[in-house]
Amino acid sequence: MASKSQTVGDKIFESVGDLIKLLPSGTVFAYQFLNPLVTNHGRCNRFEKVLDVVLLIACGLSCAFSCFTDSYVAADGRVYYGIVTPKGLHPFSDPDAAQRDLSGYRLRPADFVHAAVSVAVLATVAVLDSYTVACLFPGLVAAQPMLVKVLPAAVGAVGRVFVAFPNKRHGIGYPPETGARRRRRRRCWGGGGI
């Protein structure tokens, strides 16, 4: 019985991990950190509105771009990152990339869906942010309490689809496990003692 419940638990944690990989946490953090400065805490003039739009676009591009990156561990143990293309992975810095078969990292339709949902998560955070609403959408200030109730549930429902279809990419910020990282995780979580 313990084996079966652990399997269910492992699947749950794996699904949560897949959902976390979908979320643009670093970009959302950067947006939430910079937004009060850019919007002057919601009291923005025309220039600050332009800056906020530029910040939103830059963060949105960052969210989308990260969905089109992947990585692999070479024989020497180094992790190499690259851009996913229709022909395969195009690494940024691997000098031996021409000798490797990276065609298994081809661009897939799911990459575009993951990018769209990632940008939608950022847009949800932006619409729920009082400074952004006060600066860019002052007409929504009265509707914001309703948005706080509805939007997270809607994005969560869409996110549940990706628990069934997880993102298999190990892009920028989500590297594959190397032997050293695996050993370190085992030591920290009880697999090898401290």
UniProtKB/TrEMBL annotation:
<dbReference type="Pfam" id="PF05078">
    <property type="entry name" value="DUF679"/>
</dbReference>
<keyword id="KW-0472">Membrane</keyword>
<dbReference type="GO" id="GO:0005737">
    <property type="term" value="C:cytoplasm"/>
</dbReference>
<protein>
    <recommendedName>
        <fullName>DUF679 domain membrane protein 2</fullName>
    </recommendedName>
</protein>
<dbReference type="GO" id="GO:0016020">
    <property type="term" value="C:membrane"/>
</dbReference>
<feature type="transmembrane region" description="Helical">
    <location>
        <begin position="112"/>
        <end position="134"/>
    </location>
</feature>
<dbReference type="InterPro" id="IPR007770">
    <property type="entry name" value="DMP"/>
</dbReference>
<keyword id="KW-1133">Transmembrane helix</keyword>
<comment type="similarity">
    <text>Belongs to the plant DMP1 protein family.</text>
</comment>
<keyword id="KW-0812">Transmembrane</keyword>
<dbReference type="GO" id="GO:0010256">
    <property type="term" value="P:endomembrane system organization"/>
</dbReference>
